[in-house]
Structure to design on (564 residues):
């Protein structure tokens, strides 16, 4: 089933004009826009049943608790988790990855051990591991990528050693759009006894994800990239691993009993959810999951594949434009590029004058850009509401940019 | 907001034909500046003789605003007394940090073309990067205005 043509009517923000032009939003890899259903869910929560959860015995608190836990169940089904208790809510994927680094890493990574990640990671999947290995006297190693932003697995057998405790990688690169061979790497990592942590920020919103089929141990997701509110996200983890992990933060709700000098932890997942959580927004994330389920994730993936294919073909026609990343078969809905003689910031600035939003910079993947020998790139990224006319507008804007900067050729 | 106010002809000219690119030989001081948010990098080197900035050059990569600003800066500073260089640094930074529409107080010559950048707040740090880097280089030589450490002033 295809994405209905009327889908844009669900997104109020897309109806406006910016700088006198219709808004063309091509930065969904940074954050997605929100459908009316999600916005309404936030308003409904605060208008009808705002109350603290897991505490009150009164009706609206019970409703808030039930809906919050229902959001967990929805997210668990969406990811293919064995049970809702395997989903821990966090502020975002960054917090999810830090939770693994603290809760599992500090307990299991020791001096001389190794953490293996890749050269194409977002800073959120690099810096927590840098901090962990620095603290524990361990070593960080990296799977390299090739000229097309694909991971090079030739040396995987040497990069994975008996000292490797954690393998952490993105499911889809936010810079190149590369879909990484997670299942293959996970199998090799498990053969060495390492746990596998996947940054699912750019995959969860855009393609069917089945964490158990991937054969991994931890999976971080972020709500605001998948039609949900900012400040929502979470960690899926195998129950046995979550059970043995230490809490990240201490406080209310994460305990089962407290004395003046000690405490006992609550059960999984609540032992990781200290203090009052972002209840209203998390319930709205559940509504975003409902929305995506109604569209069908295979349809979402197919829509993005078609748009990305079209964008790559159209952008290739622009003289002096260089696409980054792999071919369409190995790519999600992200197209980064650079242009001869025009800095990405200037590209984004001129496009903004046309009402077009693209990202310019290093996309929080500075080491990847450094390896390519470019300081920055421009990035267009797509979602369920992206239409071909927006790609055409992008291309017109880029031609105008060339004219303004009088690039010859 | 009109892009014409940002991308003035003189700016585009300096971007496509940068003046004083390279490294001063010999150089008394070389400083690097970077804008961590966008990845722009610049290196300013200079030589001072008898209180005169005999040579000043820049290298690096960045957007049209940061590159043009650096090029225009070297053109203005080269051959001038250090005191005049310091005056221009203060005047330029002062202009970039006053609201759009405010007329520059000091004589800035062609540099006034960069005043349009103020209407695009995220680009202001692109324009000031090379100036702050030059200021650090002059400080290193003991010619600064005594502003203390400048590391945190790149913003």
């Amino acid at each position: 089933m295809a994405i209905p043509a009327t889908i844009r009517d669900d997104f109020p923000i897309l109806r406006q004009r910016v700088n006198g032009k219709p808004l063309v939003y091509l930065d969904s890899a940074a954050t997605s826009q929100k459908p009316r259903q999600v916005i309404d869910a936030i308003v409904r929560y605060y208008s009808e049943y705002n109350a603290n959860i897991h505490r009150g015995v009164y009706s609206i608190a019970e409703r808030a608790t039930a809906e919050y836990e229902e959001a967990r169940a929805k997210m668990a089904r969406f990811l293919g988790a064995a049970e809702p208790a395997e989903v821990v809510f966090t502020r975002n994927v960054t917090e999810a990855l830090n939770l693994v680094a603290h809760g599992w890493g500090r307990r299991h990574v020791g001096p001389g051990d190794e953490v293996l990640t890749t050269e194409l990671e977002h800073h959120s999947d690099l810096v927590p591991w840098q901090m962990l290995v620095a603290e524990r006297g361990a070593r960080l190693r990296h799977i390299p990528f090739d000229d097309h932003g694909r991971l090079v697995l030739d040396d995987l057998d040497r990069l994975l050693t008996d000292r490797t405790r954690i393998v952490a990688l993105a499911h889809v690169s936010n810079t190149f759009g590369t879909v990484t061979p997670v299942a293959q790497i996970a199998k090799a990592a498990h053969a060495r006894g390492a746990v596998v942590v996947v940054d699912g920020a750019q995959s969860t919103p855009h393609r069917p994800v089945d964490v158990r089929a991937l054969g991994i141990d931890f999976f971080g997701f972020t709500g605001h990239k998948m039609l949900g509110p900012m400040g929502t996200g979470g960690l899926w983890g195998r129950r046995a691993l979550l059970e043995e992990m230490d809490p990240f933060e201490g406080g209310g709700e994460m305990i089962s009993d407290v004395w003046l000098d000690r405490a006992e932890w609550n059960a999984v997942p609540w032992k990781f959810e200290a203090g009052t959580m972002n209840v209203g927004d998390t319930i709205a994330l559940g509504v975003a999951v409902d929305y995506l389920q109604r569209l069908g994730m295979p349809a979402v993936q197919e829509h993005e594949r078609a748009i990305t294919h079209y964008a790559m073909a159209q952008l290739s026609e622009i003289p002096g434009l260089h696409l980054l990343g792999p071919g369409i078969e190995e790519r999600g809905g992200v197209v980064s590029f650079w242009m001869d003689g025009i800095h990405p910031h200037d590209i984004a600035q001129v496009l903004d004058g046309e009402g077009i939003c693209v990202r310019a910079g290093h996309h929080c993947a500075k080491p990847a850009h450094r390896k390519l020998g470019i300081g920055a790139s421009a990035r267009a990224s797509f979602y369920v509401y992206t239409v071909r006319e927006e790609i055409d507008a992008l291309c017109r804007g880029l031609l105008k940019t060339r004219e303004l900067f009088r690039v010859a050729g | 907001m009109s892009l014409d106010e940002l991308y003035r002809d003189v700016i585009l000219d300096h971007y496509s034909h940068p003046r004083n690119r390279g490294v001063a030989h010999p150089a008394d001081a070389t400083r690097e500046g970077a804008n961590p948010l966008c990845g722009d990098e610049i290196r300013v080197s200079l030589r001072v003789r008898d209180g005169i900035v005999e040579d000043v050059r820049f290298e690096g990569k960045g957007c049209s605003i940061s590159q043009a600003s650096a090029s225009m800066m070297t053109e203005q500073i080269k051959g001038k007394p250090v005191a005049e260089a310091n005056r221009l640094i203060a005047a330029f930074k002062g202009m970039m940090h006053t609201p759009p529409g405010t007329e520059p107080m000091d004589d800035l010559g062609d540099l006034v073309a960069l005043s349009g950048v103020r209407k695009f707040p995220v680009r202001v740090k692109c324009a000031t990067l090379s100036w702050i880097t030059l200021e650090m280089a002059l400080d290193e030589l003991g010619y600064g205005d005594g502003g203390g450490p400048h590391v945190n002033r790149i913003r």
